[in-house]
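User: Hey, quick favor. My workstation is busy. Could you predict this chain's structure for me?
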Amino acid sequence: MPAQTHAAYLKYRKSEKEILMMQTEKEKQLGILVAMDLEAKGLCAALTDAREVTVGKLRFYTGNLDGCPAVIAVSGIGKVNAAMTAEAMILTFGVTALLNTGVAGGLAEGLSVGDVVVADSVVQHDFDTTALGDPAGEIPGLGLVHIPADPQLFSLLLAAAEEEGAAPRAGCIASGDLFVADAKHKAAIRQEFDAVACEMEGGALGQVAALNGVPFALMRAVSDGGDGMEYAQFAPMAANMSCRVARAFARLYANHVKKEP
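Assistant: No problem, here it is.
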């Protein structure tokens, strides 16, 4: 890259950072992380005063979502992608709360496609250092198996789901770097961690949030029964439900922040 072009690029990036810092000084921003474009489509379409900002190879969309200053990002599937994106949201944009939303496979009895699950905690079902004497799923540095969601955000998320006509199921949501499509594996996760749903990002976001002291909440709409059989057919419907609840949550969060001293 020619020196003059490189200098102009650095100036541009510095300007971008200064603008973002000014935003975070003025207002509290909600960071919303989803794994796939399917889950982000409705949220980005509803964003006003939208700007696209690139950090590394990650794209973030800032603006106003139903009265709430927000940053939206598609992390990509998997725990590493989710962790990297959540950390960038915290360090670059200064988000004051994180919401992870999208679709998941149902594990608990009685869940149907389209049902909403709100996490009271998250766990990484594929994290295993039991050979060293640790409990299955325990995260080094935290000393926790189940990472609790923020109680206030959890309550707001339940209210948001009810506002959209859902009857949310509260419980642990389990994450791992695999698409669970086996009945025996599904049963093992449910039994080991008392999980109601499984997906591939939330546990990592919860870990990053806990280590940074940032409150988080997590919601999923059920797209399949944890065996992958209905996923292709019902994922768009579940993604639409998750978008509706996320938007309702943004409205409630904005009102909640206004009431804070």
